Amino acid sequence: MTRRSFRSLHRRGSTGGFTLVELMVAMVLGLVVMAGAGSVFLSNQRVYQTNRALSDVQDSTRLAFELLARDIRHAGLTACSNSARVANVLNDGPTAGGAAWWANWDNAVRGYAGNDPVVAAGNGDGDRVANTHSLQLLGGDSASHSVASHDPTTAQFVLNEADPDYAAKDVFIVCDYDHAAIFQSSAYSATGKTVSHATTAGNCSTGLGFPTSCGTANFYTFGSNAYLTRLNVADWYIGRNPDGGTSLYRFGRAGANGLTRQEMVRGVTNLQLTYHQDGLATPFVAASNVTNWNNVSAVRATLSMRSNDTHASTANTAITRDMTMTTTLRNRVN
């Protein structure tokens, strides 16, 4: 190889590499690209985290409103829509001298602004958060069964179909064109499709006539195609959950198991309630301004919600939302 060819090859090899400055510039540009990609990734992750937390809050709000609205709509409602004429033979009811709130049909709708006499405020699991509103509701359950026959002398109903959820000690409402009656079942047979209402179950009388008579039985025979349904009892409030947060709770009657507390929806931090009473000039008033609970025809509830993710917002805190719903009582709206 001649000296000229060697020099030519040497010259071409030396110009094929990168200088130190070029390498440093390339590294800087690479870092800028990587930083940009990382920033986009973190931004997308933050957006996803926020949207997921917001979606959870909206889903929890929707569920809370649906559960609460279902009980409000059924408050004071019988399957026959004759809630003004109701016989009540429960020993815990007012006619027999009882003072249980769930056995008093006048408590079909009753609200409290922090002074609920049923669920005490405290710091234990399921205890009500102090100074929060609560709402007591009584009404017929959404499912009812038709009566095949009724014998008041033997205190027994025969139904057209059995219900596997019915049990002895359940509280029922039976109604027809004339009136409704509230009683506690002494026995239930799914095989015979019979519901008994003897006095051994907590009834002051086996007579279910209207008006209520506990001293002497006021017998009344409910005819075929009368409707029988369980009494739905609920006290809605904000309570403390086992994880140290707050939830929407329902203190209600669970059949033969009596009154139980149920945690319904987590992340609910507050419940504010106002009421529409027919005849008042103000559309919605606080519980303390209601003069006749039997004339309340709608309830407006505002729920304060908080996301489970405490770092979901742009301020690195939990997402909070206040949402309002108005629900009418079916049997009190013309």
Written description of the protein model:
20% of the residues lie in helices and 31% in strands. A hairpin with a 5-residue loop joins strand 10 (227-240) and strand 11. The mean pLDDT is 88. The longest helix has 55 residues, at 20-74. The protein has one domain (53-332). The chain is built from two helices and 15 strands. Strands 1, 2, 3, 4, 5, 6, 7, 8, 9, 10, 11 and 12 form a twelve-stranded mixed sheet that branches. The protein is elongated, with a radius of gyration of 33 Å. It is α+β, with helices and mostly antiparallel strands. The chain crosses the membrane at residues 20-42. It comes from Dyella telluris. One of its GO terms (biological process) is type IV pilus assembly. InterPro entries: N_methyl_site, Pilin-like, PilW. This is PilW family protein.
Can you tag this structure with a few keywords?
334 residues, alpha+beta, 12-stranded mixed sheet, 2 helices
* Helix and strand sequence: HHEEEEEEEEEEEEEEE
Principal-axis shape: elongated
**What separation lies between the terminal Cα atoms?**
111 Å
Kindly give the count of domains: 1
How helix-rich are the residues, as a percent range?
A: 10-25%
Strand content: 25-35%
Quick take:
The chain is 20% helix and 31% strand. With 334 residues, the chain is α+β, with helices and mostly antiparallel strands.
SSE diagram, text form:
Blueprint: H1 3-14, H2 20-74, E1 86-88, E2 109-113, E3 133-140, E4 145-151, E5 156-159, E6 171-175, E7 180-184, E8 187-189, E9 194-196, E10 227-240, E11 246-253, E12 259-266, E13 268-277, E14 296-306, E15 320-328
Parallel strand pairs: 1-7
Antiparallel strand pairs: 2-3, 3-10, 4-5, 4-10, 5-9, 6-7, 6-10, 8-9, 10-11, 11-12, 13-14, 14-15
